Amino acid sequence: MPANTPTRTALQATKLLLAGTVLLVAAMTFNYLPQPYSTWPAIGSIPVSPELVVPALLGVVVVVEALVEKFSIASIFLAIFGGLTFLLGAASLYTLYAVESGGVFFIGFFTIIAGILLAIGVFLHTIVRTERFKTASKELINSISN
Q1: d(CA 110, CA 106)
Q2: What is the pLDDT of residue 141?
């Protein structure tokens, strides 16, 4: 694996921070935990739903990191799923704010679920890429084969 450049390190840190934030937002959403904000945060006069924006941002960062980093099957899979998560988030935001018709808003549920799965994939991919994990898995395979 190539040496970490400041850009790669920043992307990895941002990716892990957003993955943790997705899981935190999901926990608050599904467990009715007290939210740190009384209403949705806003950019100007536009309300921003963390349940939709944070998974979409994670998807963008995962795709950008896959383009910057050396390709592997796992990073390509994460990039495809990250792109899908971003598209779900963008469609959710469009549906929530631009569409005037009524109805039940289900796409936001799919966005947060895709964000949760992407966050878990990000954490698993990060763990598997560490040298400690690689060393432990090699030792385990050697001990089983002997």
Answers
A1: 7
A2: 82
CA distance 59 to 52: 11
**pLDDT score recorded for residue 34:** 66
Low-confidence ranges of the chain (pLDDT < 50): 1
Radius of gyration for the alpha carbons in the chain, expressed in angstroms and rounded: 18
Pick the closest to residue 24 from 46, 55, 47, 45 (CA basis): 55
| 3-state SS class at 33 | coil
Give the number of other CB atoms < 10 A from CB of residue 13: 11
pTM of the entire predicted model:
0.81
Pairing of strands 46-47, 42-43: antiparallel
Beta bridge partners of 31: none
